[in-house]
Write a structure and sequence with these properties.
The chain has 230 residues and is of the alpha/beta class. The chain has one domain: Glucose Oxidase, domain 1, CATH 3.50.30. Helices cover 29% and strands 23% of the residues. Strands 1, 2, 3, 4, 6, 8, 10, 13 and 14 form a 9-stranded mixed beta sheet that branches. Strand 13 and strand 14 form a beta hairpin. The protein is elongated and about 75 Å long. The termini are far apart. The mean pLDDT is 95.
Length: 230
């Protein structure tokens, strides 16, 4: 006799980053983080902050879940697993037919210490969501409500907005979007980020001083690699 499939598969134990590792990415723009990863790591551009202002900025550790279409049982499981400083990463495969989280669930996530919610699906209960007080990123808003039947996974790798996300990865968000840094690459990215910040600071100073064309671009424009036709 074949056993019934589980409604949820949960991995509870995974390595979380320590505070010192996370602090490197506080007050850092997502653009700088992407540049530190060779121009990669950003979720699909359609995943945007619910509140498009400075309150959308966050950094934290991913607690992942995969929800079935029109179902949010996995999101409930992820909230149960989450702790202070975590980011709820709810993958739906880009499903927009029903919301995966509403205001009450968002409040429960905040009560667990979750610092942000990120989904490639949609949310509901906009007035209540605005009162929760943590950043939320999604594809949009829909009043359609989901079931809680599963199947789903919690604490396992997911593909979210075109990016592979593992539980314990670092997640950074701001008004431009959301970027994921894998634990495996974190040490290297921290080193690269320091250099990126120095380069950007130097360029910003030049621009404020009146620079109109990047020096490397000016050299290119004056080289034999550019053909002038008039």
């Amino acid at each position: 006799m074949i056993k019934d499939s589980p409604v949820l598969t949960i991995r509870r134990n995974f390595q979380r980053l320590d505070k010192a590792q996370i602090e490197h990415f506080e007050n850092v723009s997502t653009g700088f983080v992407v540049d530190s990863q060779g121009g990669t790591g950003a979720l699909d551009y359609r995943i945007k902050p619910l509140e498009d202002d400075s309150s959308s900025k966050f950094v934290g550790v991913a607690v992942t879940c995969q929800a079935a279409p029109s179902d949010n049982l996995a999101a409930h499981g992820a909230i149960d697993l989450a702790g202070p400083g975590d980011v709820l990463v709810v993958a739906t495969g880009g499903y927009t037919g029903a919301a995966v989280i509403g205001d009450n669930m968002a409040h429960m996530a905040k009560n667990k210490g979750v610092v942000a919610i990120v989904t490639d699906g949609v949310l509901r209960d906009l007035p209540g969501l605005s009162e929760v007080g943590i950043p939320m990123f999604c594809r949009g808003i829909s009043p359609n409500s989901p079931a809680r039947n599963g199947p789903g996974t919690v604490g396992l790798p997911v593909t979210h907005g075109g990016v592979s996300v593992l539980p314990g990865d670092l997640v950074v968000g701001d008004r431009d979007g959301v970027v994921v840094i894998s634990q495996e690459d974190l040490s290297r990215v921290i080193i690269e980020l320091k250099e990126v910040r120095q380069i950007e600071a130097a360029m910003e100073a030049k621009v404020k001083g009146g620079l109109t064309v990047n020096e490397s671009i000016r050299k290119l424009l004056g080289s034999d690699k550019v053909r002038i036709v008039d």
